[in-house]
């Protein structure tokens, strides 16, 4: 199909051309004396994305799932109790992993579309007088439902109950796109992957570890080999990896961090919020509901949009892909057919997102959703126009005189002739 594929799944996200170019490298010796010049600063700079100065970042040639496993297996022992809420596919999968690793999981089942239930976490922690719960698992942004939960709130629950459990946070679809403060929120293991806010292909599982979590490494008895923090720490200390790292991804990560720092992390977060708000304006104009039940849970990286009764969201997604070259995210598990997702994270601006919203609008109409053509696009446009940064405050040069409208142009050229 001609033209670009419009990629609006919530990961993998669009990779900027300059990152693609940075990854286009010849292979080299990862044990050379030059290699630490690449790896050591990347490991240092990653910490800024997690907002940690005391934590240690590790990069595994894996994905977010690998980083989940690294967090559990380096800090816990078989039979340990952990506390976790399940309110979407990804929180479910992390719980499933913990159970399969031999941990005892106290599951707080919650409606999909709601955020992590802080009060129920707090009750469970308060009831655990013997401090048997060794870790709290918390999914910051549940990508399946487009729900963001309150990490500061779960930290407060742990503090208020004076509970010493580790706080492990899945930030796969938040870190680098939604405000995340590892040190301030007392997060012990913060998990992410390369293919979302970092705008890279999948292939890196990244985890930042607090000193408190690191101290448990020696006593933790869950088996680990590939994901062993000890091996990684020892090799990283001299700027190397314990096994062959993915060179293109490391070069890509270097470039991705530079892209983020050039825009400014806070500006990146603000841009995500603005893009999300415009998307939500479109959803409202369509007369549709988000899966997220309350505004406090609205995600700035993904909107999960419920389709009306009688419409199959899978058909919307299929039409979008086959007819309009637009990739929308699917409803997962119990949400299959009931919603589609627009990922609005990574390397994205208003006009790109208007394309995605327009395509979703067309596909929905084709699938039988009663909508006014252009209603969602118009609402998003209005939101973004009304909140746009004034041109004067942008560091852009004015347009060249011969590209200005006729009157201004004449004035400029006549003036120049005199
Ligand atoms: N956690 C969340 C919130 C996710 O969105 C995903 C993937 O989309 C994962 C974990 C799993 O990550 P990966 O697919 O990189 O293994």
| Gross morphology | globular
Main beta-sheet strand count, sense and barrel state: 7 strands, mixed
Main sheet strand line-up? 2-10-9-8-5-3-4
Element string (H = helix, E = strand): EHHEHEHEHEEEHEEEHHHHEEHEEHHH
Q: Give the rounded overall mean pLDDT.
A: 96
Unreliable runs: none
The percentage of residues in β strands lies in 15-25%
Instruction: Output the structural class.
Output: alpha/beta
**Helix run count:** 14
Helical content band: 40-55%
Task: Please describe what this structure looks like.
The chain is an alpha/beta fold. Helices cover 40% and strands 15% of the residues. It has 14 helices and 14 strands. The protein has helices at residues 17-23, 36-50, 64-73, 89-100, 118-127, 151-160, 211-214, 229-236, 247-263, 265-286, 313-324, 350-366, 375-386, 406-417; strands spanning 6-8, 56-60, 81-86, 104-109, 133-139, 141-142, 147-148, 166-170, 189-193, 205-209, 289-290, 302-306, 326-330, 339-343. The strands form 3 sheets. A 7-stranded mixed β-sheet has the order 2-10-9-8-5-3-4, with helices on both faces. It has a 5-stranded mixed β-sheet with strand order 1-13-14-12-11, sandwiched between helices. Helix 1 runs antiparallel to helix 9 (247-263), helix 2 packs across helix 9 and helix 12 runs antiparallel to helix 13. It is globular. The mean pLDDT is 96. The site of pyridoxal-5'-phosphate (PLP) has 13 residues, from helix 3.
């Amino acid at each position: 199909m001609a033209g670009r594929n419009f990629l609006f799944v919530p990961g993998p996200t669009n990779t900027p051309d300059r990152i693609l170019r940075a990854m286009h490298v010849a292979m080299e010796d990862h044990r050379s004396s030059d290699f630490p010049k690449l790896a050591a600063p990347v490991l240092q700079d990653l910490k800024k994305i997690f907002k940690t100065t005391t934590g240690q970042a590790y990069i595994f040639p894996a994905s977010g799932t690998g980083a989940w496993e690294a967090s559990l297996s380096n800090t816990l022992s078989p039979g340990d109790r952990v506390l976790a809420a399940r309110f979407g596919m990804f929180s479910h999968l992390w719980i499933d992993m913990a159970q399969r690793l031999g941990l005892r999981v106290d599951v707080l089942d919650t409606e999909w579309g709601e955020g992590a239930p802080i009060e129920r976490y707090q009750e469970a922690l308060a009831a655990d007088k013997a401090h048997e719960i060794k870790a709290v698992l918390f999914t910051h942004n549940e990508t399946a439902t487009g729900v963001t939960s309150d990490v500061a709130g779960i930290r407060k629950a742990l503090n208020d109950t004076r509970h010493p459990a580790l706080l492990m946070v899945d930030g796969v679809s938040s870190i680098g796109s939604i405000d995340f403060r590892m040190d301030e929120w007392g997060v012990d293991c913060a998990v992410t992957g390369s293919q979302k806010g970092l705008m890279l292909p999948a292939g890196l599982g990244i985890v930042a570890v607090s000193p408190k979590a690191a101290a448990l490494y020696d006593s933790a008895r869950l088996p680990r080999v590939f994901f062993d923090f000890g091996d990684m720490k020892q090799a990283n200390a001299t700027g190397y990896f314990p096994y062959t790292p993915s060179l293109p991804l490391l070069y890509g990560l270097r470039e991705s961090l530079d892209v983020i720092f050039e825009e400014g992390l806070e500006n990146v977060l603000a841009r995500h919020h603005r893009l999300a708000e415009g998307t939500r304006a479109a959803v409202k104009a369509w007369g549709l509901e988000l899966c997220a039940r309350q505004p406090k849970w609205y995600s700035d990286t993904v909107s999960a949009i419920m389709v009306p009764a009688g419409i199959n969201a899978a058909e919307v997604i299929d039409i979008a892909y086959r007819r309009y070259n637009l990739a929308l995210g699917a409803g997962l598990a119990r949400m299959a057919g009931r919603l589609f997702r627009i990922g609005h994270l990574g390397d994205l601006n208003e006009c790109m997102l208007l394309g995605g919203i327009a395509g979703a609008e067309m596909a929905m109409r084709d699938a039988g959703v009663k909508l006014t053509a252009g209603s969602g696009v118009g609402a998003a446009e209005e939101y973004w126009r009304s909140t746009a940064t004034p041109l004067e405050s942008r560091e852009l040069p004015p347009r060249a005189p011969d590209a200005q409208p006729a009157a201004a142009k004449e004035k400029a050229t006549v003036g120049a002739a005199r």
